Amino acid sequence: MEHHGISVEEFLAHEHTEGLWCWVLKDVRKLPEPVPCRGAQGLWEWSEPMVTED
Fold it and tell me: Which InterPro entries match (predicted)?
């Protein structure tokens, strides 16, 4: 866990932690606008809109 920038103690202290698992994300980018989605648990499909360079 430490090589991903979070200590085991910090991870276990989180109120929503149930066991040792998490998503490790790479190349995370901030979207220019929020993506509307229905509030629900689980995974969902999202099609990235075409982005044009300004």
Answer: PUA-like_sf (IPR015947)
Total domains in the chain come to: 1
Q: What is the 3-state secondary structure (H, E, C) of the chain?
A: CHHHCCCHHHHHHCCCCCCCCCCCCCCCCCCCCCCCCCCCCCCCCCCCCCCCCC
Q: What is the pTM of this model?
A: 0.33
**Distance separating alpha carbons of residues 17 and 1, to the nearest angstrom:** 14
Q: Which domain holds residue 1?
A: 1-26
Q: Is residue 36 part of a domain?
A: no
42: left (phi over 0), alpha (psi -120 to 50) or beta: left
